Amino acid sequence: MSGVLRVGVIGAGAMGASHVRTLSESVPAARVTAVYDRDVARAGEVAGAVGAVATDSAEALVASGEVDAVVVASPDFTHADLAVACIDAGKPVLCEKPLAVTAKDALRVVEAEVAGGRQLVQVGFMRRFDPGFLALRRHVADGTLGEVRLVHAVHRNATNSTSTDDATLVTGSMVHELDIVPWLLDDPLVGIRVESPVAEGFRDPQLATLWTRSGVMVTVDIFANAAYGYDVRCEVVGTRGTAALSPVAPVSLRAAGREGTALGQDFVAHFLEAYRVELSAWAEAAARGGVDGPSAWDGYLANVAAEAGVASLSTGSREVIDPGERPALYAG
Fold first, then answer.
1. What is residue 6's three-state secondary structure?
2. pTM for this structure?
3. Domain limits, CATH 3.30.360.10, in the chain
4. Where in this chain does the record put each GFO/IDH/MocA-like oxidoreductase domain (predicted)?
5. Exposure letters 134-165 (e unless 16+ CB within 10 A, then b)
6. 3-class state of residue 253 by DSSP
7. Are 54 and 47 a contacting pair, CB within 8 Å?
């Protein structure tokens, strides 16, 4: 592939539209050429703003000779089928998280890649590109903290329109922590217990306890409708010190008898730089025909952990996380 990467974006909602803007304004290696959304008017509006065309279907976008690579930002239940379609077409794809709704469907994507003999799928776990999480990982890796014993993570939204029941709170929101914790520690998850103080209806918030292979214990506080704003925190506790994400608050305000900092209301603004770096890295790797980020196997691992978490909500017990053997394609 030579020249600028021609990108098709499936899904023109908040996430898809943000990716279209970022690719068009901040990723010189890429150019958005096609957009698809079930809302035809919305697709036309988003596409027209960047000089792209709106296609009649997701399938037509994937097959288009004007599209070299694909970004999937459509509803979660469409992800696995679209990822497989891109693999079948031989086109690199950045698939927003989660890779699939179930571990079985995520494994289907992995198996399609293994059958094709090359990695084409990158999963949109953008926290791996966030400067704060990267700094935390360096402190873990260089031994500054000593041996890690505990991790405390917080993930709260003011409101959330996609994580709307017990299961999707785990598969759609907590899935970020289920990916970032083993990446942060370079230590796979082996067990999970998920509980909630809410007895009936939508059990939000939820508190998860995770265990890694080396014995680190992790707490994850997930609250999809916390009302006050978007809030992501993480602290790593070791035998010689701790490290925590610094609050994202460039301005402190004093007004009306109060002092404080404003809280963001959505994840896109909070992780804007992470998305830019993620899309830049993906476009450059896709232009070379490869992947430079979370793989389909990483997506599958998160789905396996999420499925165990959903089961734990029902059983009240610690559930085993067992993804099986890693295929050789992902051994690097």
1. strand
2. 0.93
3. 128-266+303-320
4. 133-243
5. eebbebbeeeebeebeebbbbbbbbebeebee
6. strand
7. yes
What residue spans in the chain does CATH classification 3.40.50.720 cover?
A: 5-125+273-295
Determine if residue 230 is left, alpha or beta; phi over 0 gives left, psi from -120 to 50 gives alpha, anything else beta: beta
Q: What's the rounded mean pLDDT across residues 24-35?
A: 97
pLDDT digits (tens, 9 = 90+) for 257-278: 776 665 555 555 678 899 999 9
**Per-position DSSP letters for 204-232, written without gaps between them:** -SEEEEEEETT--EEEEEEETT-SS--EE
Q: Are 39 and 16 in contact (CB under 8 A)?
A: no
pLDDT of the residue at 16: 97
List, in sequence order, every beta strand (DSSP E) within the chain: 5-10, 30-36, 53-54, 69-72, 93-96, 121-124, 148-156, 189-195, 206-212, 217-223, 231-238, 242-244, 253-255, 258-260, 319-320
Assigned token pair, 21 = 């803007």
- Give the integer Cα–Cα distance in Å for 284 and 32: 14
CATH domain 5-125+273-295 topology: Rossmann fold (3.40.50)
For residues 99 and 82, the answer to whether their CB atoms sit within 8 Å is no
- Check pLDDT > 60 for residue 247: yes
Q: What is the pLDDT of residues 70-124, one digit of tens each?
A: 999 999 999 999 999 999 999 999 999 999 999 999 999 999 999 999 999 999 9
Q: Write phi, then psi, for 76 (nearest 5 degrees).
A: -50, -40
- Token pair of 58 as six digits: 């997701």
Tell me how crowded residue 110 is: count the other CB atoms within 10 A of its CB.
26
List the alpha helices (DSSP H) in 173-319. Answer: 175-185, 267-270, 272-287, 296-315
Cβ burial, residue 273 (10 Å; 0-12/13-18/19+):
middle
Judged by average pLDDT, the poorest of 165-179, 205-219, 266-280, 289-303 is: 266-280
CATH for the stretch 128-266+303-320:
3.30.360.10
